[in-house]
Design brief:
CATH class: Alpha Beta
Number of domains: 1
Structural class: alpha/beta
Radius of gyration: 19 Å
Helix content: 40-55%
Largest sheet: 7 strands, mixed
Strand content: 15-25%
CATH topology: Rossmann fold
Length: about 300
Amino acid sequence: MFFPFLLFFFSLIALIIFIWISTHRKYNTSQSVSASYDSWTNNRLLEELWGEHIHLGYYNNNQKKQDFRKAKIDFVHKLVFWSGLHKLPKGSSIIDIGCGIGGSSRILANAYGFNVLGITISKEQVKRAIQLTPEDCTCKFVEMDALKLSFPDGSFDGVWSVEAGAHILEKQLFADEMLRVLRPGGVLAVADWNKGKSNHKSLNLIDRLVMKQLLDQWSHPEFSSIEDFQINLLNSRFSVGKVDIDDWTKYTLPSWNESIIEGVRRPKIWLKLGPLSFLQGVREIPTILLMRWSFAKGLMRFGVFRSRG
């Protein structure tokens, strides 16, 4: 009995590795990012597993075993208060750049009374965000490129962006556009996946191979270091002259394991979505484990950025 089990187990592992290596979503243009998120949205896998928030969760030392979905909600509130966004009055206009299916936008609207415009490059995310948003919620969603925001300078009281910058090649233009549409006295709140070192050449061979997979598997053109993106914000012609940064890696690190465990906690999801979705979910496990290893090792860091216009 034991040998057949081992044979099945190692065959499954081999299949996972083969699928993972042979298929990827390498970044080519912004359209490759759009196509990836269209697919992830339509198959409902991320939404069914993780809820309305695709980003990581926030865990302090006493909360490492809390519900993954609650940790994601906690993350939004933590970033709101850390950035100072909560000091803006109700009715303030906020743009959520890279809004996903609108989870964070709805919290900003419902908990803080903001008027929120969520933008994403994925048309399918826009459709799903609209479907999930009650009519009385002060949120709107549109398809738009973060590098080509169709708004005049100073249009928003607050700019919010979580885990969007890693999908954008032109980091300086990304920083410029966020600060351009922020009004004087407004609040910038950004969180993102960042590489640990500015110089890629300083990495050893294993680290370089890992970084290549982290880029290629999830449509990332390049990661910026926390310090380099702070410089992008400071060097922008729209800069307000001060940008605070922090490293939240230790607070978000449990999210990676939790994102896998959710698939065990919610087995009915696989019956609902079918065997193809199960294979799609399993296919993501190697990348998630590499992400977890990279953040724990310091190869990657989770950066947060704030600025007051």
